[in-house]
Amino acid sequence: MTEPDVQGLQRRLAEFAASRAWQPYHTPKNLAAALSVEAAELLEIFQWMTPDEAERVMDDPEAAHRVADEVADVLAYLLQFCRVLGIDPLQALSAKIDRNERRFPVGRPPGRAARPDRHSAE
């Protein structure tokens, strides 16, 4: 069995939605809303946990299953959102990391962005 790739997963999700005639509902707005809801459901699992309990959440098989399911839901909606808008999620992430490496140079105190050059194109 081969490892899944982003495009393959996007294709499977699109086929799944198409076979159920869900495409009219998969608008950028609806997918962004669904993504937000699923992210909130992931957060809900951790809502009343202490930091130590959160670190050990995957030790409990039932909690681990819930976390994995919510991660899958978040990723599914994110991949569908990207497909609808023509965004390559891996390229978008790589570009964001590049920008953050410039914004937050090594050695700068945490949370302090570098001052942007007023004449740069960023």
Distinctive features:
122 residues; mainly alpha; globular; 5 helices; Helix Hairpins
Topology:
Blueprint: H1 6-19, H2 28-46, H3 51-55, H4 61-85, H5 89-103
Helix pairs in contact: 1-4, 2-4
GO molecular function: nucleoside triphosphate diphosphatase activity
GO biological process, one term: nucleoside triphosphate catabolic process
Region (Disordered): 99-122
Write a structural description.
This protein is mainly alpha-helical and 122 residues long. It has one domain: Helix Hairpins (Orthogonal Bundle). The protein has 5 helices and no strands. The protein has helices at 6-19, 28-46, 51-55, 61-85, 89-103. Helix 1 (6-19) crosses helix 4 (61-85) and helix 2 runs antiparallel to helix 4. The radius of gyration is 19 Å and the shape is globular. The N and C termini lie far apart (43 Å).
